[in-house]
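About this split. The held-out portion is used to measure sequence recovery: a designer receives only the structure tokens and must propose an amino acid at every position. Recovery is the fraction of positions where the proposal matches the reference. Here is one held-out target exactly as it appears in the evaluation file.
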């Protein structure tokens, strides 16, 4: 189904630009291959070559041969490409065209002239399969990031194309949703669909993957069968920057003793928030974020974790309740002054023309800030990317830039929304170490996450957010 023979692709016209070099790999029809490796190693470039976006949309210099079912994917007409392959990008927001979920699922079928009855029947079946039936009449802009990811996968697979390509499909999903995606992929594979996935959370795919292909600095470094990969230890994967469940072995328990009544903390008391036209999102939330500690906020997709993080940091004004610093109520504007929120989607908060300038954006550059920026570049592995434009980076690299910018800030409350989304094993360890360093300096750190590895490595307490309450574990 897929064959790359001696493929070299370099973006732009500079010989130093990143890309891939001398890549040869094959995926047979009906197989599932998982691409893995450190952030920026070339995984997304390989996907772009397979789906034809490189070099047709992403310009660059290509040598070697790329074949999908015997055809060059870059030369396929748009309608042929739509029928032959479904694609889910790293940022699902970038591939939505319509306002509502049902319309988005119908978009490709309508453009290909499907009969209305067939289209509606397929949409209903796919929505039920992926557990998004209750979202069909919702606006895409009002969905959580995890919900958007599930909708993107449903839209890509609704026409049952023979090839499905997914870039970080589980990055923002909880364990239940991740398992549902894997089960869906397994059913698609049993029906003959060829699947190519790029991801950092690898062991979830053992049920569906036939092979794991490891990229390193733009080249294929290693490949393993499913059985061989399952036998690899954390020490075996560590040299390649790959995640392993046993990374938590040396981490904290993620539990904390009861918080003393007068202990310094940011407190949420009886908080409620309502989005227009969506009804009550959160109500009666009580939350304590101890200063000098790292708190993990967990819960299912759509439970309101990001909304609560925005309320605590002052980006949203609560409908009722208070946020206090010990016994002093904090207005939304005061909370904004005290907080730094690293968003789930890094593209929303990257503004400067280079990585280095992004870290100091909006602040007077003095020797102290300059030294801190150099420390951040080193801590997050960004020194070699200092002069690169943020828009040219991979998703994982962008995520590291936003966290490095938070490191350079003077905020007292740091809220990290899915900070390990798109990060490799080294990135997870760096985030955990950085969060601990901030806590040791007296900062209050709240991590919104589905990543149990990060939770055990970095967090002092775990708070589970349900529809009507926040509960300490």
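Reference sequence for scoring:
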């Amino acid at each position: 189904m897929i064959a790359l023979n001696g493929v070299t692709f370099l973006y732009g016209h500079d010989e130093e630009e990143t890309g891939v070099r001398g890549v040869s790999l094959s995926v047979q029809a009906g197989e599932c291959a998982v691409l893995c490796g450190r952030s920026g190693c070339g995984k997304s470039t390989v996907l772009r070559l397979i789906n034809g976006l490189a070099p047709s949309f992403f310009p660059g210099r290509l040598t070697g041969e790329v074949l999908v079912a015997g055809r060059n994917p870059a030369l396929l007409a748009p309608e042929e490409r739509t029928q032959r392959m479904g694609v889910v990008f790293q940022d699902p927001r970038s591939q939505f065209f319509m306002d509502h979920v049902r319309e988005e699922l119908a978009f490709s079928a309508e453009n290909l002239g499907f009969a209305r009855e067939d289209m509606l029947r397929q949409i209903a079946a796919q929505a039920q399969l992926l557990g998004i039936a209750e979202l069909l009449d919702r606006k895409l802009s009002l969905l959580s990031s995890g919900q958007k990811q599930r909708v993107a996968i449903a839209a890509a697979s609704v026409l049952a194309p023979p090839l499905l390509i997914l870039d970080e499909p589980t990055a923002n999903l909880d364990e239940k949703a991740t398992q549902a995606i894997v089960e869906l992929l397994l059913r698609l594979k049993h029906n003959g669909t060829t699947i190519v996935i790029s991801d950092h959370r690898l062991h979830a795919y053992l049920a569906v993957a036939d092979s794991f292909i490891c990229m390193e600095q733009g080249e294929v470094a290693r490949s393993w069968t499913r059985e061989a990969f399952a036998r690899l230890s954390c020490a075996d994967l560590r040299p390649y920057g790959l995640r392993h469940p046993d990374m938590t072995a040396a981490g904290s328990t993620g539990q904390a003793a009861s918080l003393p009544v007068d202990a310094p903390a940011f407190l949420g008391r009886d908080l409620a928030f309502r989005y227009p036209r969506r009804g009550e999102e959160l109500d009666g939330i009580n939350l304590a974020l101890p200063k000098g500690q790292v708190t993990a906020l967990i819960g299912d997709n759509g439970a309101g974790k990001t909304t609560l993080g925005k309320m605590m940091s002052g980006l949203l004004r609560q409908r009722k309740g208070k946020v206090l610093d010990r016994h002093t109520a904090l207005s939304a504007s005061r909370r904004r002054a005290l907080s730094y929120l690293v968003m789930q989607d890094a593209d929303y908060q990257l503004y400067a023309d280079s990585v280095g300038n992004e870290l100091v954006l909006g602040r007077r550059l003095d020797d102290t800030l300059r030294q801190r920026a150099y420390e951040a570049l080193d801590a997050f592995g960004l020194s070699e990317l200092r002069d690169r434009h943020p828009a040219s980076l991979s998703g994982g690299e962008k995520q590291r830039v936003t966290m490095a910018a938070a490191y350079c800030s003077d905020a007292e409350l740091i809220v990290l929304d899915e900070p390990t989304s798109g990060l490799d094993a080294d990135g997870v360890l760096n985030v955990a170490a950085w969060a601990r360093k901030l806590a040791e300096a007296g900062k209050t750190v709240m991590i919104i996450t589905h990543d149990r590895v990060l939770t055990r490595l970095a967090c002092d307490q775990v708070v589970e957010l349900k529809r009507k309450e926040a509960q300490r574990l």
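Annotator remark: The mean pLDDT is 86.
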